[in-house]
Amino acid sequence: MTKTAFITGATSGIGEATARILVNDGWNVIGMGRRKDRLIALGNDLGGAFHPIVGDMRDIDDLQRIVRQLPGSWAEVDLLVNNAGLAPPMDDFQDADLEANLNAMHTNMDGLVALTRALLPTLKERRGAIINLSSVAGSYPYRGGAVYGATKAFLTQFGLSLRSDLSGTGVRVTSIEPGMVETEFTLVRNGGDKAASDALYADMDPMTAEDIAATIHWVASLPPHLNINRLELMPTNQSFAGFAVHRD
Ligand code: NDP
Ligand code: 8X3
């Protein structure tokens, strides 16, 4: 039987690549994002197995309406990929723009909680799965990542605790925690500065959106008795630095 996935942030990067790999494997995919033109272009590529929805993760009432109004068999969601997200610029928090940081919190956490809550009755009925796009930034602190890292730590812990609440329902929950993936993520983080984004990923072989999409596809295709709780991935050329020590 054809399965249906609901992917947030399907207009770019990891979400778009995941939509493509799932449709190519026979899934039906609901793809959500704010950019209608991107959704139309993706729909033109993927055909009738793709159902585009224009939506903003910060508009909780609209997310609930979207779930209530999913048409026909599109309401039978087997997999929720909580992928939409962004990071504010990497300024030290004491110098950072508060609005940009609050915006990241609303985007990465509030809507995700509301959307997950709205889809859970269906996911429970269908013994489905939730895959959350967290990050290494939720486990390892780095300068300029205070709020972004905190949103991802929230997401990891939300998923782990949700597993406890869903015990016995058959619903699986996985936190995928990548390091550097070359997408539009850094372009967005740097306010559209393409040179800065290119410089970050230069000469270090970052992971690709397709790498992460293949991982999501693998997790989503595992047999129902198996739950991957957390999965951390990095490019080989990204590793760990030591503690910073300030001396007067
Ligand atoms: P992209 O910037 O390429 O994609 C982000 C997606 O999120 C877009 O489709 C965008 O759609 C959507 N999005 C952003 N804000 C909103 C909003 N308010 N409402 C609806 N959709 C929104 O980045 P990635 O593909 O890299 O990021 C996907 C996820 O992976 C994010 O949660 C990110 O934190 C996480 N991640 C990324 C890593 C990386 O190095 N790239 C590493 C670890 C985790 P639109 O603008 O059309 O609304
Ligand atoms: C983004 C991954 O390593 O750029 O979530 O912080 S990293």
From TrEMBL:
Pfam families, A to Z: adh_short
GO molecular function, one term: oxidoreductase activity, acting on the CH-OH group of donors, NAD or NADP as acceptor
PROSITE patterns in UniProt: ADH_SHORT (PS00061)
Cited SUPFAM superfamilies: NAD(P)-binding Rossmann-fold domains
Keywords, sorted A to Z: Oxidoreductase
InterPro entries reported in the protein's UniProt record: NAD(P)-bd_dom_sf, Sc_DH/Rdtase_CS, SDR_fam
Gene3D superfamilies xref list: NAD(P)-binding Rossmann-like Domain
Record's signal peptide: none
The family this protein is said to belong to: Belongs to the short-chain dehydrogenases/reductases (SDR) family.
Protein name: SDR family NAD(P)-dependent oxidoreductase
